[in-house]
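sanity check this:
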Amino acid sequence: MKHFANLLTNKLVIWNIIKPEDRELYAYGFWQGAILIFNFITVAIIGWICHMLWQSLIFMLAYGILRPVAGGYHARTQRNCYIFSILLLLVALGLLYWFPWTPARGISIATLATCTVFLLATVEDENKTLDKTEQVVYKRRSRWVSFSLLCIAIILIVVREAETAYCKHKVIEGTVDGKSIAVGEDVLKTKSSFRTLPLLPSVEKLLLAEKGKQEMYRKLFKRSYCRDYLDYICLDQAGKP
């Protein structure tokens, strides 16, 4: 990439587009731009392969905004920095994939991360030292950035929660004392059975209408209405699955 940046800069100097004395400045800019584009393409490919494209892009965007002001480990070479960033992305995607995430858990972890930044940032490294003025400035910036990211995360989680349906519960027929009853449980057959689906407006309308019917049946039948399944919507007129 550095060779490409130098080659492009030399061509621009020959064509009198930039001044010779600005050669190093433009070469450095082209080099950093090429690295940025290459990193973006890598993240997009990894996200596409893992079927987690938008998660990958959002993570790297937030990381790219917070990292320069919060400090931390700085690799000695650009290659090591690239490898470390990719490994960090893979770890983040692995956590999102292998561990069940709920809105409450997501907000809690985001809040904990923000508190950590408030307490520890800015973190110095032997490859990037900071004077006292830089430490004060970066600490203030890191707190504002982390708090802003927390607010954005909470808003996105709340909005997504209102428009999302989760498949994480099932009802099976069981036998108790010789009687057949419906038993609900949060244990599904396989991990892939746990799904997150968009809640379409038409589906939401039908569910709300069915919920309204159950409320009407409950008032109509009073004590005759079964109250063992009040958390369910798709019931018969007696309140049973």
